[in-house]
Input
Amino acid sequence: MQDDLIIKTTNLTKSYGQHVALDKLNLSVPKGATGLLGPNGAGKSTFLKTILGLIHTTEGEGTVLGLDIRTQGDEIRSRIGYMPEYDCLNPDMEAIHQVRYSGELLGMNPTIALARAHETLQYVGLGEQRYRNIGSYSTGMKQATKLACALVHDPELIIADEPSNGLDIVARNYMIETLTNTVKTGNRSVLMASHLMDDVERVCENFILLHKGKLAAQGRIEDLKAFDREIEIHVWGGATRLEEAMVSRGLNVRREGRIMRILHEQEDTTSMILQCAADVGAQIRRMHEYEASLEDLFLSIMENLGYEVKTSEDLLASPMQARKVDAPGHMGGGAA
Amino acid sequence: MTTLENTPSVFPPVAQQPVEFAAETPVTGKVRLEAAWGSTEGDEDLTTSTASAPKTDGQIFKQQYKQWNGQLNPRWMRNWAILRHHLLGIFKKGHRPWGMPIRLYLLVVFIASLSDVGMTLLSGLIGDSGLHSIWGVSRDNLYGHVLGFFPRNMLYYPVVAALLVGGVISEDRQHGTSALYFSRPITRFDYVGMKFLSVALIQGLLILVTLALYYFAEIATMGRGWAWIIDTFPLFLATVFSAILLIFTYTSIGLSLSSVSKGKFFPGIALLSIILGTKVLAFIVSNLFDREILYLISPYDCLAHVGQAIIGTQPTYDQYSWTWSLASLVAMNALSLYVLSTRVSSMEVTRE
Output
């Protein structure tokens, strides 16, 4: 299990004077794709700089690909590919030469770097555009070039900071597919920092949630979502009677007008709902399993549970509490 | 008088009113519900519709990740890459894109700096001793090749330095390309060291290479022997040292200005202001207070004062010791390098 970890930190702390940017982070990031989530100021950038070995930690220790972040920063940066959020390309250079130069900066032979630049630009979908000046590129093409720069030396870990930032839907889909392909067919690991929960959900199996420099949650996205399985029904006629009937049978019901969500706790929950509807004469026009999006969960954790929740197991240990915060205040949700 | 009962009804009974939903029908009541649910009573005839499968014509581009199992070279190769990127950019595409005006100006300065070489060759070829006494290698002419004010230190070298340093670091701030360096195993020292070296080497090409050509042109055309070489070589070395001091000073001041900026214009114009503007300031001080400060505050005059002492030409400020100028040069360079190192240390990787 230890061998499967690409990043591991123990009590990792980074302070800037009085301000604690990272507060005793204990992280274990497995191979594969991991989403790094957190609101602005959560410490994501500081965390990335720390694992790149660019800043000294105040306290604690950590390893990236088995290398010590305090003493082996150069080796770490040789083995990872970093795709920054902001522009990092010279607009007066052609993409092929920009990517080649990125490879050379890692110590690649110029001829080999040029060959790899062709391959990676082909991979990110810029094969036909590679001799154009970057200044004439669209935002999506620039993002793809940044990804090619990160992939030129075939790194074991790719750190992508907001990879789909500012992209239209087509370019965004392509970027997400490329990252997914890199993980699945390339067998590479990706640490993806993003505010777009959909993107994280599509690429990553795992997540890390930071809040005010602390670890708010970490684990598998599937686990995080599993605790909140509900059945959503759309009722026509007799909604109040149906709600009362279901509550009297011990079902957990949340209601917004004619839409109700019932906690899917038992195997016979569905038949109980239908039975209740039959008993009170209410029509159920639509019935399906409701799965909370990562965005819902992110917001609810951020707003209500805060950073005291440490892992998805903790969330699973208190599903009622987590469920409750998922609902808006007027639906009985809110503070847990 | 008509009664209410006798009044003919103009409205049909509500139950008989047909239910029709036209585009102009207000979205209220039942209509709204129909719109919300997207169906009527649920008793309408069931129809099925099947989406046709999209036509596929085969896949032209198949995204396939290709692995690379090569070995990365050590630190010197990474540093060489930075140096090469900047130097080769002067000559060909695919490297640092120096602007065409800069490249043209460098060519003009290179040719202009060869004027004494050309005249030496000419005097040797036609055997004119008068011409040779003016243009041939001598203490004053060696000094003049590197430290002469007009035109070399007024129109050539400071302008070249200003054009070169303008965007070398500031562009990395402007375009965020610093992230490209520092997210790779490039240290700040290597980054700034290689940038410094590349700018200095381009200036060296113009000053030192032309100086060497000048010296060897004299040997070649005048048939100088070992005795002459042994006599003059220390002078040549002293001139080379003066040139290195000049290149180092202009580069360190220029790069420090580049590191505090995000554009090309400010560092260039600020460097020219420091080199040439201090002369104006010293002139004003001299006129107002009858006090000579040029040998202290002007980088060029400090260099000239030190160069005169090293090469052994007639000093301009013979009433002051050249060591004051040397101390001033050391202070200027120390301050510039401090600013440069501080600014480069603070360059961001995750955002700039």
Observations:
- The first helix of chain B runs from residue 29 to 37.
